[in-house]
Amino acid sequence: MLTIRENLLETIKGGNPDRFVNQYEFMELIMECPLGQMVGPGQTLKNEWGITFSWPEGQLGGFPVHDEEHKVLKDITKWKEQVTIPPIVTDDAAWAAAEEHAKNVDRNERFVTTFVAPGVFEMTHHLMSMEDALMGLYEEPEYMHELIDALTERELAYAKEMIRRIKPDAIFHHDDWGSQKASFVSPEMFEEFFLPAYKKIYGFYKENGVELIVHHNDAYSANLVPFMIEMGIDIWQGVMTTNDTPELIKKYGGKISFMGDIDSGVVDFPAWTPEIVHQEVERACTNCGKLYFIPNLTQGLNFSSFPGVYEEASKAIDEMSKKLF
């Protein structure tokens, strides 16, 4: 029987896996890195960038507050005056828990994986609102390029410190690029503004010992897959069924792998049942096949919004491994 790590590599390299990779099992997520403040359920907080986040009780996640009072960047032409880029945390004590966690992982079994969020695109609209960020790409492209360059350099500085301390095998990087049915920007605009940034970021990780780039994007982005390949993504996590995952595997398998195809919105809701979960897992595993595919809820971490769903999906995936392998 292959180790978890070996089975993952056989799956994404078109080899001979002996079972389905079961959701996030191959990533030992090091969540203790001092990445920045993140809002929790029922909280409102202002983070180190000055962005105010709110997560109302009963909702599935938090989002920045973008009324006139709370918006950080009100005029993209004045971003240098209005955006204060926070320094990277270099204090030993702040990194101690993450270093200790990484040190105790069996790297022959799992990939030591650091978590990075938000991504470059998300940072633009967190600072200035989605509407302003998208309009800025059209109306003030020069200033948007400057802001994106600054955000890229800041992440590279964080990456340097994190790699020095953790020496990760994999990066789990978040940046949502679309809705369920369309990308937020056209492929041409994505290529101009965001591809160069990610080629720098993911190139830096790969040049410094990172073996796997796993990118979370629970959205429609089938039209951006060629750019994902070019920027160095190994696994697109969060791929929704609206992308036609089996067709993507057929077209791009061997260049990139796809993790998801079990839409969280379909299985992860208050009235969920084991039957619904097992039905969706069976559909995904049967349609997508054994190679270049990892069955997974499209949720961006190794849990579900409602108790029991993630665990039930893992159980169903194990059952499909017994049936299909």
TrEMBL record:
Q: Tell me which residues make up the Uroporphyrinogen decarboxylase (URO-D) domain.
A: 119-301
Molecular-function GO terms, alphabetical = uroporphyrinogen decarboxylase activity
Record-linked Pfam families: URO-D (PF01208)
Output the SUPFAM superfamilies linked to this UniProt entry: UROD/MetE-like (SSF51726)
Domain of life, per UniProt, equals Bacteria
Q: Name one GO biological process term.
A: porphyrin-containing compound biosynthetic process
Q: Which residues form a coiled coil?
A: none
Write down the PANTHER family for this protein, in alphabetical order: METHYLCOBAMIDE:COM METHYLTRANSFERASE MTBA
Name used for this protein in its record: Uroporphyrinogen decarboxylase
